[in-house]
Structure formats: C-alpha cells, structure tokens
Amino acid sequence: MRRVLLRPLARWRSSLQTRVVALTTALxxxxxxxxxxxxxxxxxxxxxEDRQRVAVADAARSAATxxxxxxxxxxxxxxxxxxxxxxxxxxxxxxxxxxxxxxxLLRTPQTAGGADPVTQPVVRDVTSPGLSADSVPAExxxxxxxxxxxxxxxVDLRDGSGAPSLVVGSTVTLPRAGQYELYLVYSLASEQAxxxxxxxxxxxxxxxxxxxxxxxxxxxxRTVVQPVRDAAGTAERLAAGHLDERMRVRGSDDLxxxxxxxxxxxAGLQEQIEQLEExxxxxxxxxxxxxxxxxxxxxxxxxxxxxxxxxRADFDPAVARSAELLMxxxxxxxxxxxxxxxxxxxxxxxxxxxxxxxxxxxxxxxxVDFTAQLxxxxxxxxRVSEPHSPCTAEVDSRRIERVLRNLLGNxxxxxxxxxxxxxxxxxxxxxxxxxxDHGVGLDPTQLPRVFDRFWRADPARARxxxxxxxxxxxxxxxxxxxxxxxxxxxxxGRGCHFxxxxxxxxxxxxxxxxxxxxxxxxxxxxxxxxxxxxxPAVGGxxxxx
Amino acid sequence: MLPRAGxxxxxxxxxKGRVLVVDDDTALAEMLQIVLKGEGFETTVCSDGDEALAAxxxxxxxxxxxxxxxxxxxxxxxxxxxxxxxxxxxVMLTAKSDTVDVVLGLEAGADDYVVxxxxxxxxxxxxxxxxxxxxxxxxxxxxxxxxxxxxxxxxVRRDGRSLPLTPLEFELLVTLARKPWQxxxxxxxxxxxxxxxxxxxxxxxxxxxxxxxxxxxxxPEHPEIVVTVRGxxxxxxxx
Lengths: 545, 239
Known about the structure:
The structure holds two protein chains of two kinds.
Chain A: H1 2-14, H2 16-71, H3 78-93, E1 101-107, H4 109-114, E2 126-127, H5 138-145, E3 151-155, E4 165-174, E5 178-187, H6 189-239, H7 254-310, H8 317-347, E6 356-359, H9 360-378, E7 382-385, E8 392-395, H10 397-414, E9 420-426, E10 430-436, H11 471-481, E11 485-491, E12 495-503, H12 535-542
Parallel strand pairs in A: 7-9
Antiparallel strand pairs in A: 1-2, 1-5, 3-4, 4-5, 6-8, 9-10, 10-12, 11-12
Chain B: E1 18-22, H1 26-38, E2 42-46, H2 49-59, E3 63-67, H3 75-85, E4 90-94, H4 99-107, E5 112-115, H5 120-133, E6 141-144, E7 147-150, E8 155-158, E9 161-163, H6 167-178, E10 184-185, H7 186-194, H8 203-216, E11 226-229, E12 233-236
Parallel strand pairs in B: 1-2, 1-3, 3-4, 4-5
Antiparallel strand pairs in B: 6-7, 7-8, 8-9, 10-12, 11-12
Helix pairs in contact in B: 2-3, 4-8, 6-7, 6-8
C-alpha cells in the first residue's frame, strides 16, 4: 500500500517532466471545468428563458382562444358544455405524437363547493391523456385563482420523460358554469435533451482538450527536459572520471548553446585535470626517482661511514666523534629516505595490500618486543591487555607492524617515562589496538594535524629519536589501505590515545570500533573548556620538563 | 647440467667463501669489496651484465651479490643465466622493495635480497646465512611422501631419481621434513631457513615454496608434500 503511494511520489520528486505534465493537466482540467460549467449554465438558462417566453405567449393566446370559444357558445346544458370543453381542450393540445403542449381544464374548487348544482351546470375536469388534476401543484392553482394574470411554474410531472415541464395557468369563464382554470403544460424534454447533448459534448471535448494539453506539455517538457537530462547524465559521467564525455550539439537554439557551453566547460576541466594529473605524476615520479637514485650512493656512504665508525678507536677524539655523528645522521637520512619512498609509493597508488589471516595479538607482541629496549631506556613500562582468544584479522602484517611500531615509538618518545598501555580488543567485525600514553599529550586543536607530513607538535622540541616526520602519515596510509581507521585523542599534559581499528575481513567497511578513542573513564574537566583562551593554564601543564 | 644439488662449486678450506659482486656502480662495488674483505671473504667484481656469466664461470663463487639494475643484460636475466648452470646462492641488491621487482627477482632464481641502502652488517649476515646453508652436515636421511632426503649428501630422490634443488630449496624442504607434524608460519621459516631474526618479507617464503613445489610435487597445483595450512603457513605432508 505504501509502495503504491510512494512510487508516484518519488516520480513526482525526481522527474521535472512528470511535474510539468501533472501540473499542466491539473490546471487544464480546472479551466475546462470552470469554462464548461459557466457555458452550460448560460446555455441552459437561455434555453429555459426562451422556452418560457414562447410558452407564456402561447398560453395567453390559447387562453384567449379558449375564452372566445366559450363565449361564443350558445348551448348551456351540461352535456353540451362538457362536449364544448372537451373540444376546446383537444383543439388546444393539438394533434399528433409531437404534441407540444398538454392541457388541463379544471374546475375551481370554490365553484364546485359553493355553487348550486341545479342552476350551475358542473363541467367535469378535462385533461390531456396522462395528466390529472393532481398534476398541477396546489400553490400554482391557488396563485391562478387569486390572480387575473398568467401564472407559471416549473413542475416535475413524473410522466416518465424525466424532464421537467412548464405549466402556465390562467382562468377562463365558462357560460353559466362559472370560473375554470386552464393549464397548459409544455414539456421541456427537448430542451433537456439539448442540454444533455451539450453537456456530453462539453465533457468529451473537455477531456480531449485536457489530454491534448497534457500531451503538449509532455512534448514541450520533453524537448526541454531531455537535453537537461542529457547534460545531467554527461555531467555525472564526467564527475565519475570519464573526461571524454561530451554533449551532442544540434542546431543553434538555446539548448545547443547549453550543450556548447557545457562542452566548453568540460573541455576546460579536462585540460586542467590532465595538466594537474601530468604535473602530479611527474612530481611523484620525480620523488620516486630521486629516492631511488639516492639509494646507491647512500649505500656506499653508509658502508664507508660504518667502516670509519668501526675504526674510530684508532682516531683522535675529534675525528672519532665526527665518525659517530656521521653514522647517526646517516641512519636518520636513511629513515627519512625510506619513509619518503614509502609515501611516494602511496601517492603513486603503487601500494598493494597483501592480506593474510593473522592473530593481531602476535603482531602486537612482536612490536612490543621490538620496542622494549627503547622503552626501557626511556623508563616507560609497556603494559599489554588483550583477550585470551586469538584476534584474527586479514591484515598485511608488515604494514600493521609498521603502524604499531610507529604508534608505540611515539608513545615511548612522548610518554615522559610514565606507563604505556596497549589494549587489544576485538568483536565480530573489527579488531582494535589502542596505544595510550600519559605524557605531554596534544592540544585538541593539534589533533587533526597529527597525521600531516612533517608536522611536529612542538617545532622547538628536540628531535631525540630522529623520526622522519612521516611516520604517522605512513601509518594513516597503511591503515587506509586496510580500510581501517586510525583515530587519535589527546589532552595537554594528559597524554594521547591512538586507536587502530581494522576490519576482520579485508575489504569490509567498518561501522564502529570496539575500542572508543576517548579513554574509558575520561571526564572532560570543566576547566578544560576555557583553557585554550588562558594560555598559562595550558602551558603550565604541558611545559613541565 | 646442474651439479649435484647444493654442492658449492669449489669451496675453499676456510669458513669464508668467494663472493662475486655484480654491480655497475664502481664506488659501491669497491666499498662492497672493502667490507667483504674486512670480513674475510674473497671477492671478484663484475660491472657489466653481459660479462656477468663469464665472470661467474671464471670465479666459481660461493655466493653471488647481484644488482638488479645493470647496463647490458639486466639483473633478472643474469640471475636466470646463473641459475640455469648452478644452484649457487644469489642475493639481489635492489633499490626498490616494491612487490613486482622483488618477486620478479625471486622468481628469476634469487634466494634472498637486500634493499639499498643496507647496513654492511645486514649484508654480511645475508651472505653468511647463505653460505652456512650449503655447509657440511652430519649424515641424516628423511622420508617425506615418496621422497628420500639425504641431508648430508644434499640430495633428494624420488624412486631413485635425483631431483635438482638449490641449497635454499633444499634447506626449506629439510626444515619442513624434520618436523612433519608441525605447521610452520612464514615468519618461523624466515628465521630458520633465511636466518632473519625479525620478521622480514614473507614473499620470500611464498615465492620459494612455489619454486620448490614446481620441482618436487607431482602436481604443483595440488601439492602433497609442501601443504598450505590456511591462516598459519606450511607443513610437510602427507603424514
């Protein structure tokens, strides 16, 4: 039922053409109905008036004729009068099947009641076939009796014709018998038939007109809407990346102008996009080439550095220290270069996911083991909480290991020697790993920038562990490649919480993370709201060494 | 003709072996020589892909270090040529760790690879791991499926017919065959066969298992000797 209602509604909303046609048809219907009703009323009224005028004149003439016939009568006996009355009536009603009027000659009841039957002969009512004294309404008879002039009324005689009749009444005086009422009944059947015909014609014509208007509207709308639809379709395909899509230009009208304008725009866009793509491709290529070209000499330099470094015991202190510096900076250069290369691979879309079902807990253990030395040096204890059953997910272990190593490395670096909590949680659809530190933390305004390339929370901060500044950017790309989420929460002086959420089946999209990024039990202190406005309050918390 | 599986072409008495460095970058080649000599290896250098095969035949090295990008005949081709004559361990030097390059190199017959810029210690560890694999072993005979593996003799036989395997493939098979009840993860195989202590590239395992299967399985599409254990890795079968 709903669908039956909804489908036209949806069509109404989605199709301009449907709307135009429906509106035009509805308006046409209203106009045709109004005009038709008005015309039909006018015609009916005119016909009735006309008929009435004719009837009144005819009735007056007939009454006069009847009166003169009665006046001219010589015989006065009752049977003779009755005979006369019958003759008069039948002469008035005319003969043949197309009788235009029926006649009634009725005795006035007063005459009947108060008269003396001996002196006044009683002429019985004379009526045309199918009529009786009851056919004439009482109020008309009263009006006729009470007046000298003609009275008329529309009466439904219920004679089977279904049409009303016009009854015109007047009085006649019969010799000796006194006053009688003469009624002439004019049937309006033919007028009724005419009006019926006219109405039928109107309805038929009106319907045809409405259909015609609808069809015209449909055609007009189509000629206008079709190019608009074409344009919309072309625009959609363009937006979907088919830059070669163009509209067909026909003639030189407004629609052709639309098409030409559209095509010019598309061509401009295509050129721009292709230029940008080419530029971007060249740039990516350049980054990749540079990184590759740098690798061979860097390998040589690095090996040379290592040889020098290994032999530094034989050098004098300044040279030995130089060899050490050379070595550490080479390491940093190396990290930077490989991160740069990794990013350029993501940018080029060359990164491929090689997902296998893996127990994420095992990866977490490997990463924790790997970072253990650094954590120990920094004085941070790493606590892992995880479920007892395996948290298997289809992941690229190399990438996920890299992501987690990065998160844990950051946590250790910024953890201020406080404990670091690593949480593994999984549900039916997703596995989440949270890395929470209680160190310097981040301002909420800094959070969106955390994953930016080469971004540092505090540029003045010593780069002690020598990260490339690309780690989190790469981690985010690795996560995206898995269709996962990498979320971050942080408060100055309260530490950070990074949550990596991965779908358990590769290619599935995530709807929710089993581990909320806002740490459990965290309550936003009321004072934290105005904090950004009062810098000392924030600085006091995070600036402590 | 391939020599007897895994037999080093001409091992000298000492622990150290001969290394052939095929690299067009003279500075890197020289540096490699310095480092390798420092570690006690004998080295020969070849800087042109076209001459690589001749240099290989002349030097009869125990390990080949091969740059993938070479002028003339490229590294993959050189790798294929050497592999056609010998099972000598080949370690690729590559500037790209991208999937395609590495996998192509491994499929061309390389046993292992190091990505530039590598640490000298890392390179030496790779070379040592490959030399160790082809070293001497106590006599031991393993049976797996219809194969008979003579560990000391570096040979694998089916119905008395010898199957030619490279030392690495042989090592992989022996590792699996020694514990047929155990499913080995790729990481574990990397550690035991390649000598990586931390997980490295599992593609190494995948490619070499494919190569091993193509040599020892009756139908490599339906392996019966090296069986995949879904979600874990590989296992020797049937039990």
